[in-house]
Amino acid sequence: GENMTVPIRLLAGALSGMTAATITHPIDLVRIRLQTQKELKGVVDTLRSVYAENGLRTFYKGYVPAMLSLSPFIAINFATMDTLKTWYFGEEKNLSKKELKKRNPAAILGLGAVSGIFAQTCCYPLDTVRRRMQLKGKTYSGTTNAFATILKDEGIAGFYKGMTANALKVVPNNAIRFAVFDMLKVFMVTESKEYKEVKRQATAWRTRHPSRPESKLTA
């Protein structure tokens, strides 16, 4: 198949990010409340506490910035990684298993780390707003108000608080994810019919001429 263009990669990543944000946001909100509000005694207690605030709507506090941060993060991350791999390894169209095996895992780790750093730097302000709204939902009237309040009280630096610590988790995770994915492709990629036919012909030729040196197969 043809290589995807950067806009298509970005769109695919954004759509997957939107889906992930919609499904996982309530779980993420409960996790953050449990980690930061020591008075809560467990998952059930947290669920009751969140629901008591404003019903089911409370579970989606910070959903807009979450969607606006996760979707671009996934889109930028995957598009950047694909672009870096094309730059480093060359075009990826119809790679065989043998060609995939030749790739250096350390190079994939490095490229994954770079793409993770770049995507996080671009999207971290939105992630900051998401976390603040999940933790202090009553403090802000909405996403726009949260942005304005943080900017007014803390300046631009307020949007990047904790980014270094977060990078210590995100960057290695991103690098390992791409490296493992690349290794799994070796087992998952199926060889094309043309490649299988060439292998079949080569095996048949060696069977018929066991004592003769191999020569190039011609169509």
From TrEMBL:
Chief subcellular location equals membrane
The lineage's top-level taxon is Eukaryota
Residues annotated as region Disordered?
200-219
One GO biological process term is:
transmembrane transport
**One GO CC annotation:** membrane
Q: How does it sit in the bilayer?
A: Multi-pass membrane protein
Places the protein is found: Membrane
Q: Where are the Solcar repeats?
A: 4-87, 103-187
Q: Keywords in UniProt for this one?
A: Membrane, Repeat, Transmembrane, Transmembrane helix, Transport
Q: Which residues cross the membrane?
A: 63-81, 106-126
Q: Which PANTHER family match?
A: SOLUTE CARRIER FAMILY 25
Which protein family is it in?
Belongs to the mitochondrial carrier (TC 2.A.29) family.
Q: What is this protein called?
A: ADP,ATP carrier protein
